[in-house]
Task: structure prediction
Amino acid sequence: MSGHSKWSQIKHKKAAEDAKRSKYFSKLSAMITVAAREGGGDPEKNPKLRVAIDKAKEFNMPKDNIERAIKRGTGELEGVKLEEVIFEAYGPEGVGILIKTITDNKNRTANEIRSILNKHNMKMANSGSVSFQFKEKIVFRIPKESYSEELALSLIEAGVEDIKEEQEAVVLISSPQFFSQIKSFLEKRQIPVLESSFELVSAQEQEVSQEAKEALESLFEALDQQPEVEEIYSTLRS
Result:
């Protein structure tokens, strides 16, 4: 699919690494808090919160942790003020990169992101110079064995705008307003959802040299180790 969500590629590997799980609990907790603050604490009325809770459950995050994160977002519990900040960058061969963070100190996080980029011979871009290439989409990944050409017609009627194949899944892409409609359709058809997420998707994919691809993967791994980085997107062809 267009764009590049590092989360979807690493989540199962990371979930199996118990030593790193607490770090991902912190990231997931921040994601839930921000989603609850922006759209309210009811996951049935707040699709972003529902997706964040689903991710937390995939990592076996305790229910109490999830509930506390929601209450921090709705103001029922006190906590540090978190905000979502997206940094823009250019990689080798002109690949556009968006780095979504959740932070309580924008300047500190900006300095840390800039340092990581510099170490990988890449630089921060001006605001808007990369983001204009991306649009927010809702993405569902379903097993390949659950997909058929006949199903595709029904999916389009349910609101799916684009269908792509990945190595291990079929990807359904649509506008955020169709989240509940598509999820309900999949549930009624008893089609398992491997993952659902809100992603920033680029309409323009790029093929790059193997050298550039390796440099980008190294950057993505380094960014993922930064505690406040939630998602990484790029125009690199998946």
